[in-house]
Design a protein that fits this description.
By secondary structure, the protein is an alpha+beta fold. The chain has one domain. It has one helix at 4-25; strands at 31-38, 41-48. It has a two-stranded antiparallel sheet with strand order 1-2. Strand 1 (31-38) and strand 2 form a beta hairpin.
Length: 55
């Protein structure tokens, strides 16, 4: 069983890395991510949510 502190540390580190990556490739104001922990593995999805209005 994974320790709560270990999971929190991994999630915080990964979120910091994701925000740095988003800043490099796109607009930091338009993204969302999901985190799932299963049996000691983190599954993280990153999605760009930028939408442009057509006038």
């Amino acid at each position: 069983m994974a320790k709560k502190e270990d999971i929190k540390a991994k999630v915080h580190k990964k979120v910091e890395d994701l925000i740095d990556m988003v800043d490099k490739v796109g607009n930091i104001d338009f993204f969302e991510f999901g985190v799932r922990h299963t049996n000691g593995e983190l599954v993280i999805s990153l999605k760009n949510t930028y939408k442009e209005k057509i006038k």
